[in-house]
Amino acid sequence: xxxxxxxxxxxxxxxxxxxxxxxxxxxxxxxxxxxxxxxxxxxxxxxxxxxxxxxxxxxxxxxxxxxxxxxxxxxxxxxxxxxxxxxxxxxxxxxxxxxxxxxxxxxxxxxxxxxxxxxxxxxxxxxxxxxxxxxxxxxxxxxxxxxxxxxxxxxxxxxxxxxxxxxxxxxxxxxxxxxxxxxxxxxxxxxxxxxxxxxxxxxxxxxxxxxxxxxxxxxxxxxxxxxxxxxxxxxxxxxxxxxxxxxxxxxxxxxxxxxxxxxxxxxxxxxxxxxxxxxxxxxxxxxxxxxxxxxxxxxxxxxxxxxxxxxxxxxxxxxxxxxxxxxxxxxxxxxxxxxxxxxxxxxxxxxxxxxxxxxxxxxxxxxxxxxxxxxxxxxxxxxxxxxxxxxxxxxxxxxxxxxxxxxxxxxxxxxxxxxxxxxxxxxxxxxxx
Length: 433
What we know:
The protein is α/β, with parallel strands linked by helices. 49% of the residues lie in helices and 15% in strands. It has four domains: 4-132, N-utilizing Substance Protein B Homolog, Chain A (Orthogonal Bundle); 144-177, no CATH class; 182-240, 2-Layer Sandwich (Alpha-Beta Plaits), CATH 3.30.70.1170; 244-432, Vaccinia Virus protein VP39 (Rossmann fold), CATH 3.40.50. The protein has helices spanning 4-18, 22-32, 38-53, 55-65, 75-90, 96-109, 116-129, 142-150, 154-177, 192-203, 243-251, 269-278, 291-304, 348-351, 354-371, 394-403, 417-420, and strands spanning 182-186, 208-211, 218-222, 238-240, 259-262, 283-288, 309-313, 327-333, 375-385, 406-408, 413-415, 425-432. Strands 5, 6, 7, 8, 9, 10, 11 and 12 form an eight-stranded mixed beta sheet that branches. It has a four-stranded antiparallel beta sheet with strand order 2-3-1-4, with helices on one face. Helix 1 (4-18) runs parallel beside helix 3, helix 3 (38-53) crosses helix 5 (75-90) and helix 5 (75-90) packs parallel to helix 7. The longest helix is centred in the middle third of the chain and has 24 residues, at 154-177. It is globular and about 70 Å long.
């Protein structure tokens, strides 16, 4: 029988050593151990993602009790302690004694018997004092408090605090840590009764579906045991797509018969929705920079039967003269810092920095500058990101207007996870003069 905690431990060690994307890593782990029962896989996912997501907070707690600084601990011991603390503090279904004893057993099993007492003592201290943890003083040092309690770097707390103030920043950070329902986008051309029937069939699996009032084809789903086995998935009747992305595409004003160009398209969600709106008389050119990314577009295209989508490998930073002045709607969902999806891609906050964002802003402008000329006179450009950062959002839009001959159609939209119950997402629609 597989040891679920040991599977998580190995995953965390791989994540720390190889600096890989945590969402891809946990997917690979769950695929490898797909034969485990649903409960075991849920435990692995919860513990792995929790340890990644709350790493700063867990290290703060560990630092309060450990005689050895966290950074100087052996990687295996450090990650075993993080796992134990997370179970003690956040997994009510796991008895503290089980979290401690299993960590001690794994310490011995992996050849660190001499450190088993160290692991045991630290976790027992955490369990004994878990209701009296000493956190940074919220009034005296709000930045440190936010950074530790929500496991985000201090520079990001400072940035958002300067924009939204302390109270709203904490609200946003708290929302990013909450477990959000999966968003299912039903095919736009399904009738109301067909959508209701499909929702009913999905509900029979135990899923809890709630219709989102903002768009008639969006359902929020909880208590899912995977998506691919749901009724209608294989038939291409729905896909997983956040409502923020759908709202952006709807705002672009795509019409039946339009030519749409999606320059940074993978995995293709916006392209597929655009293809349904433009219809058989229209066409969507869906591109991305590599074969691997385009293969993901192809998978979605084939499953959703989007016959008017034409995918291809293209570098969005290099101008394609063949489509110059010919596109009705250009979709530029540019590479960004991803600060609006920290709850889905939990490692982003540890890898992002002001320096890396500055490089992204340069790349964003390179893409915009290369592709803007595709839009015909009077055509539209949809600029979007999944981040919460005016430097990547509003400032880029203003530059497009001032330097590339576009004008805003309505106000740009910044969706925030605490009030809008979706990803942190930005979009603006511009018209070419």
